[in-house]
Amino acid sequence: MTRDALADAAARLDAADPLAALRDAFVGAQTPLVYFDGNSLGRPLRVTAAHLATFVEEAWGGRLIRGWDETWMQLPFTLGDRLGAAVLGAAPGQTVVGDSTTVLLYKLVRAAFDAQQAADPARVELVVDRDNFPTDRFVVEGIAAERGGRVRWIEVDPDRGVDAESLAASIGPATAVVVLSHVAYRSGYLADAGALTALAHRAGAMVVWDLCHSAGAVPVDLDAWNADLAVGCTYKYLGGGPGSPAFAYVAERHQRSLAQPIQGWMGAADVFAMGPEYRPADGMRRYVSGTPPIVGMLPMLDMLALLETHGIDAVRAKSVALTEFAIRVADEILARAGVTVASPRDAAERGGHVTLSHPSMREVTARLWRDDVLPDYREPGGLRIGLSPLSTSFAETLAGLRAVASALAAVGTASAGRAT
Ligand SMILES: *Cc1c(COP(=O)(O)O)cnc(C)c1O
What are phi and psi of 144, to 5 degrees? Predict the structure, then answer.
């Protein structure tokens, strides 16, 4: 009798998983393909195809232009409020859906920078960490150049992220705005957002949180953190589909005092007045610029319904169990091939993905993709194992990591062959 302790463990974990049955609700989860990239693009839900068809026939095709008055004008806000309640810890009236994360980041960081400058011209610094996602760094650099500000870089350990010590060393009376990721896209480091927000506030700074890698996998508590501003993707853990619109949060206390830079007719106080000048709406509408991308908002409604039913705490519990199991498997079968875990080992400091490092991971990723095992690769040498909690099983996780071991062995053999 052969005993496979890891396969037994995976089977036990799947049998005990209260969310296991949800996997069947996703397109493709029934095939042997291993999906480790739900943190870049979540799998679609099977019900979404029918919902999109109904939308074309009945809402778009049937209601036509009346659809705007009936539901679409409000959808960015009603959907925002549902996201706020289910996954963001935000009371109603503070969240809107539209644009991309990059564009919303630009609007909010610039609005915050301008407000801080107006209140105190000595606040010229935009603070961001060297390992933040490229768009966050690029937007901050662009705003600094455009507004005569200065970028202050936080140096971080790339296997971790920004903590209280590194933030405290980078903020002070010159700080205008701090831009931070809740979960670091590379290492998966989960920041203590409440504590970092309080620290920044004590220095007189405003904080913009990027929630792309946490929303839908890790509990977010914007109101409890006393957050100022936040943005995030919906095509990652929120299942919105390729290029689905992002969300923005503006704390109620800031809404009327911030002026976002892309003023358009859809953010005006009276949208259909077609008046001679721009007067921004009160509340979240002022953060809208142009016509909202309604079609792009539809698939995430199905994922949101699941999150509302099961609750983010159950999703987080599954996510922690998946990443713990992935680290255990990596330690048992990949460490001897020289693979290291480049993510925090303490679950309280880790989001929904685990990064495994090895100099050959670029080649390993190319092999895995050919074999229908889909992680992603991030320089330098990082294999990102994204474990979307609702659509990933423990058996799938084990199968994928065993494929990593085989690919590493094959790459090693191939390069040894070349050397001789
Ligand atoms: C995925 C991601 C983005 C993406 O921004 P887009 O405008 O949707 O391309 C931004 N920030 C972080 C931290 C991300 O992980």
Answer: -60, -45
Same domain, 216 and 243: yes
What's residue 418's pLDDT? 55
Range of 369's domain? Answer: 5-46+311-414
3 pLDDT band (50/70/90 cuts)? confident
Give the CATH number, domain containing residue 362.
Answer: 3.90.1150.10
pLDDT digits (tens, 9 = 90+) for 145-176: 999 999 999 999 989 999 999 999 999 999 99
Alpha carbons 207 and 127: distance in angstroms, whole number: 9
Q: Is the CB of 133 under 6 A from ligand 1?
A: yes
> Taking 70 as the threshold, does the pLDDT of residue 324 lie above it?
yes
| Residue bearing the CA closest to ligand 1, atom 2 | 212
Distance 212 CA to ligand 1 centre (A): 6
Establish if 18 belongs to a structural domain: yes
**Per-residue pLDDT, 420:** 46
For ligand 1, the distance from its centroid to the CA atom of residue 412, given in whole angstroms, is: 34
> Is 420 part of a structural domain of the chain?
no
Against a cut of 0.85, is the pTM above it? yes
**Nearest residue by C-alpha to atom 5 in ligand 1:** 101
What is the atom index within ligand 1 of the atom nearest the CA of 104?
7
- Residue labelled with tokens 């008055």: 69
Q: What DSSP character marks residue 278?
A: -
Cα–Cα distance measured from residue 77 to residue 97, given in angstroms and rounded to the nearest whole number: 7
Do residues 245 and 347 both lie within one domain?
A: no
H helices of 228-353, in order, are 294-310, 312-329
Please give the structure tokens belonging to residue 331. Answer: 């330690």
* Beta-carbon contacts of residue 369 (< 8 Å; ≥ 6 apart): none
Per-residue model confidence (pLDDT) at position 417: 56
Residue 133 annotated as catalytic: yes
